[in-house]
Amino acid sequence: MTQSDLYTILPNITLVVWACALLLVDLFIPKTRKGWTALLAAFGLALSLGLTLAQAGREMSAFNGMVTLDGFSTFLNVLFLGTSLLGIAIAYGYLKRMGLERGEYYTLMLFSISGMMLMAQAADLIVIFLALELLSIPLYVLAAFARPRADSEEAGLKYFLLGAFATGFVVYGIALVFGATGATALSGIAAAVAAGTFTKYLLLIGAALILVGFSFKVAAVPFHMWTPDVYQGAPTPVTGFMAVGAKAAGFAALLRVFVTAFPSLYVDLVPVLWALAALTMLIGNLVAISQTNIKRMLAYSSIAHAGYILMAFVPYGQPQVVPDAVASALFYLVTYAITSFGAWSMVIALEKSDAKGLEISDYAGLGRRKPALAAAMTIFMLSLTGMPPTLGLVGKFYLFRTVIAGGFIGLAIVGVLTSLISAYYYLRVVVVMYMREGEPQTESEPWLDLTTATAAVATVVLSFLPAALFALASGAVVKLF
Amino acid sequence: MEFLTNPLNLVTLFPLVGVLILLFMPSEKKNLLRWTALAASLVTFGLSIWMLTLFRQAEAADAGALHLTISLPWIQVAGWKINYAMGVDGLSILLVLLTAFLTPISILSTWTAVEERVKDFMLFFLLLEVGMTGVFLAQDLFLFYIFWEFTLVPMYFLIGIWGGPRRIYAAIKFFLYTMAGSILMLLAILWLGIYQDTFSVLELITKTGIPADIQLWLFLAFAAAFAIKVPMWPLHSWLPDAHVEAPTAGSVILAGVLLKMGTYGFLRFNLPMFPQAAIQAAPWMALLAVIGIIYGAAVSYAQKDVKKLVAYSSVSHLGFVMLGLFALNPLGIQGGILQMINHGLSTGALFLLVGMIYEQTHTREIAVYGGLWKITPIFGTIMLIVALSSMGLPGLNGFVGEFVILLGAFGSQAIASPWYAGIAAAGVIMAAIYILNMFQKMFLGPEGSIVAEVKKHGHALRDLNWREIATLVPILVFIFWIGLYPKPFFDLIAPAVEKLMMVLH
Questions:
Q1: CB–CB contact A471 B78 (8 Å)
Q2: Whole-angstrom Cα distance, residue B301 to residue B298?
Q3: ipTM, 2 decimals?
Q4: What is the mean predicted confidence (pLDDT) over B217-224?
C-alpha cells in the first residue's frame, strides 16, 4: 500500500476508524446523554466530507486499479455524506421520542456510509461486492432497530433475506463475467472485450445477473416486492436514509459497471432496460395510488423515481449521450435526496409511538393548523410530481432530455404519462392537508424542523439557480478505460 | 440590475412584493389583507400602463417586433442553452393588460364573498397573477413552461379550498387535465431543445427545416396542451366543473385569462414555429372550432344553472377565437386576438354578476328567479348590457370581434370553405337565443320564488352596492369603447399580425 493508495480512500478510512472508535467511546457515554454519540458521529461525517471536498478535481487509481477516485466518485461521496448528516439530524429527536436511543444506531450508519462510498469508488467487481455487503449489513440491522416492534423485525428480516438473495445474483454474475473475460477489474473486462477474447453469451448472462442484483438494491420492478414492507416497518429515519443512500449507491454501481465494462452489450440489453424502466415507472406509480399509509405511499413513490432514473440510464451505450445519462442521473439523485428527505422529515414530525399518525388522513387540517409545515410538504409533493417552482421539475427536465436525445421517445412518453398518474396521489396529500378539517398533532424538534426548512428552501431556490448543480453533475463523468 | 429594472419583469414580478408583505401580516386582519392585495394588484396595473406607453414608443420605431426585451443567460452549462428571455409584442400586449386589469377587479369582488382564510386566498391570487403574466411575456420555452405549469398550482388551491360543494373533484380534474396536455408539450419542447439546439422562441421561428412529418407531431404535442386549456371540443369536460365549483374571482380569472393562455399558445408557438403543419391542420382545427361553437351554444341553452350556462358559453366563444386564428389570414387572427379580450371582459363580467346575485340568494338555478329587473334595476341594466355584449350586439365589443373573425374565416385560403364561417354565424344566433332566454327567465316576467324565499330570512334582495358597481364599471367602459371605436386596439395588434403572416407564407 502506497501513500497514494491511502490518499485515494482517505475519507473512507477516516470514517471507518472514526466509527470503530465511536463504538468504544459510546460505551462510556451514559444512556441519558446519547446526544453526544450523535454529535460525534456527525463530526466524523463532517471530517470525512471535508477530506472528500479536498479531493475534488483529482483523478487517481489505487490498489492496482481496484479503487478509483474521479469526479463521479467525489460527487457521490459528497451526496452520501450529506444525506447521512441529514439522516442523523432527522433521527436524533425521533430515537429519543420513540425510546430507541442506542449508540449503535450512529455507528451502524457510519459503517453503511463507508460501504456506499466504497461503492462509488470501486473499479473492480470484487470491491463492488465488498462494498455491497458493507453497506447492506448495517442497514439490515438498522431496519430492525425498533425491536421488539413486530413490523420492524419483519422489515429487518425481509430486507436481509431478499438482500442476501440479491447479493447472490451479483456474486453469480461476477463469477460468470470472470469466466467470460478472465478479469474482475472493470478495465480488464473492457480490455478483454476490446481484444475480442471473451465469450459473448456468458458475459451477457453475467451482466444480466448483476443487473438483477442491483435492481433489487434500487428497488426496480419486478424486484421491488420488499420495498413497501421494509420502508413501512423500519424506523422512519432509517427509511429516509435507505430511500436515498442505498438507492444512490445502487445506481452508482450500475452506472459505473455498465458504462465502463459493458458498453458492448448495449444492443442486447436495451430492450431489457427499456422494459425495466417502463415497468418500474408504471407499477410504482399505479400502486402508489391505492396506498393510505404515507410510508407505503412514499415507498412506491421511491420505486417510481428509481424508474425515472433508470429511464435516463437506458441510452447508456451511446457515446454522445453517456455523459448526459450519468450527469442527469446524478442530478436527479440530488434532487430526489433533498426532496425525499424533506418528505420523510415531515412523516417523522407527525409520527406517534406505535406507528400511529402515519395514515394520509392524519394530515387533515395541517394547512390551517401548521401553515409552514403544510407549505413545506406541498413543496415536496410538487417537487416529486415535477411541477414548478421546484427542483423536481428541473431534474425531470434533464432526465427526459437525456431519453429523447437517446432516441427513446416512446419511453419518454411512458415517463410523462406516469408523472401524470403520480400527480394524482401526491396531490391527494395536498388535498387532505388543505381541504379537509382535522386536528393534526405535530412534534417540533429543532434539528428536524431545520431539515424540513432547509429542504423546502433548497427545493425552491435551487430550481431557479440550478446552473451550478448542473455544472457539478456534468463535471462528474465516469472515467472510461 | 437589468433584471430588476426591466418593465416586463416589474409587471410580472411586482405581485411578489405583495406576496412578501402578506406573508408577514396577521391573518385575523382581513380588511388589511384585502387592501394590501388590492394595492399590490393596482400597482401592477399601473406598471402595465407604464409598460404600454413604453411599448407604443418602441412600436413607433419598429412596428410589430418584440419590445422591451430582456435576455439573461440562465442555465448555460452541459449543453443547455436556457435564457431568461422576456419580450412583448402586439400578440401579447393586450393579454398582459387584460391580466393586470382583471386581477384587481377580481380581488375587489371577493371583499364580502371570501371570509375564510383571506390571507391564503390573496397569496394564491397574487401568485396566480405572476404565473399568468409570465406566460404571456416569456420568450424562452423553458421559462414559458415554468410559468405555464406554475399557474396550475395557485388555481388548484383557489378552486379546492374556496370552491363549491364538489370543489375537490373539480380542482383535481382541472389539474390533471391541464397537466396531461402540458407534459406532451414538455416532450416537444425538449425535442426542439435537442435537435434545434435552442429554447429561444425567436430563434426557433427563424430556424426552419424540421421535416414535415415531425413538424406535425410537434404541432400536435403543443396543440394538446393548448387545446385542453382553451378548451376545444372534445377536450372541454374539465371546464364546466372547474367554473361552477370555483369561487367567483376564480371563475373570472379562469375564463378571463387562463383560457386565453391556450389560444395565445396557438398564436405564439404553433403558428409561427410549425407553419407548414399549421396550414395542414387548419381545416381540422376550424372543424373542431365550429363544432365547439355549436355544441357550446346548444349545451348552454339546456342549462338550468346560470353559472354552468356562462361556463358552456365560453366553449362556444372560444370556438370563435380558434376559428379566427386558424383562418390564418390577417383579419381572422386580428379578430381572434380582439375576441380573446372581449371574451375576457364579457364573460368575466357575467361571472361577477352571477356571483353577486349568488352571494345574496345562494342559488344559481335559473328557474327560481324571475322579475329581478323591478327589484334590482341597476343589476338588471348592467346584466343586459353585458349579456348583449356577450351575444355580439353591434355597438358593443363582442360584435366587432365576431364580425372580423367571420370575415376572416369566409375569405380564408387555409380553411378553404365558406361553410365553416356560415355555420359559425348560426352560432351567433344561437348565442342570442340562450342568453336572451336566460335574461328573460331571470329578469322579466313574474317574481320568482327566490324573492319570497330571501324575504323569509328577514332581508329583501338588494340592488348592487357601490363596491359592486365600482367592480363592474371599468369593464363596461371597455365594452363600449371596443364596441364603438376599436381602432386603437387593432392598431396595437395589426403590425405584429403582419409579421406573423410573413412567417406563415
A1: yes
A2: 5
A3: 0.90
A4: 93
pLDDT digits (tens, 9 = 90+) for B44-78: 999 999 999 999 898 888 888 888 888 888 888 76
Calculate how close chain A gets to B160, using CA atoms only, in Å.
7
pLDDT at B460 over 80: no
Nearby residues of B79 by Cβ (< 8 Å), 6 or more positions away: A324
Residue B310 CA to residue B245 CA, distance in Å, equals 13
Which residues in chain B (111-130) have CB-CB distances under 8 A to chain A?
Answer: 117, 120
| Contact criterion met (CB below 8 Å) for A464 and A380 | no
Q: Is A208:A197 a contact under the CB 8 Å cutoff?
A: no
Instruction: Let me know if A419 is exposed, middle or buried by CB neighbors in 10 A (0-12, 13-18, 19+).
Output: buried
CA distance linking residue A208 with residue A202, whole number of Å: 10
pLDDT digit string (tens) for B338-386? 999 999 999 999 999 998 888 888 888 888 888 888 888 888 899 999 9
What mean pLDDT value characterizes chain A? 90
Q: Which H or E element spans position A408?
A: none
Cα B374 to chain centroid, rounded: 33
Q: How many CB atoms lie within 10 A of CB B54?
A: 15
**Tens-digit pLDDT profile for residues B392-410:** 888 888 899 899 999 998 8
For the purposes of burial, counting CB atoms within 10 Å of the CB of A437, is it exposed (0-12), middle (13-18) or buried (19 or more)?
Answer: exposed
For residue A355, pLDDT over 80 is answered with no
pLDDT of residue A365: 87
Query: How many inter-chain contacts (A to B, CB under 8 Å) are there?
Result: 87
A285 contacts chain B (CB < 8 A)? no
- pLDDT tier at B97 (50, 70, 90 boundaries)? very high
Distance, CA of B327 to CA of B504 (rounded, Å): 12
CA–CA dist A311, A406 (Å, integer): 10
In whole angstroms, give the CA distance from residue A50 to residue A53: 5
Check residue A479 and give its pLDDT: 65
From the list A186, A202, A207, the residue with the least C-alpha distance to A261 is: A186
Nearest to residue A303, comparing CAs of A211, A193, A218? A218
B19 CB within 8 Å of a chain A CB: no
**Cβ(B233)–Cβ(B315) below 8 Å:** yes
Helix, strand or coil, per DSSP, at residue A185: strand
Tell whether A405 lies on the interface with B, counting CB pairs under 8 A. yes
For residue A481, the model assigns a pLDDT of 60
* Beta-bridge partner residues of A60: A69
Which helix (H) or strand (E) segment is A245 a member of? none
- Please tell me the distance in Å from B174's CA to the nearest CA on chain A: 11
User: Which residue from A minimizes the CA distance to B195?
Assistant: A405
E strand or H helix at B82, and its extent? strand B82-88
Place of cell 465511536: A22
From residue A69, alpha-carbon distances to A12, A59, A123, A250, A261 in Å are 12, 5, 9, 18, 17
Q: Is the pLDDT of residue A438 over 90?
A: no
Which of the residue ranges A167-171, A346-350, A405-409, A438-442 would you say has the lowest mean pLDDT?
A438-442
For residue B6, name the pLDDT band (cuts at 50, 70, 90).
confident
Neighbouring-strand partners of residue A301: none
* Nearest partner of A143 among A164, A157, A163, judged by Cα: A157
Distance, CA of B245 to CA of B167 (rounded, Å)? 5
DSSP structure string for B332-365: HHHHHHHHHHHHHHHHHHHHHHHHHHHHHHS--B
Q: What's the confidence (pLDDT) of residue A467? A: 84
* E strand or H helix at A62: strand A60-62
Nearest Cα neighbor of A97 from A453, A452, A451, A441 is: A441
CA A292, distance to chain mean position in Å, is: 24
User: Do the Cβ atoms of B409 and B415 come closer than 8 Å?
Assistant: yes
Cis peptide leading into residue B446 (ω within 30°) = no
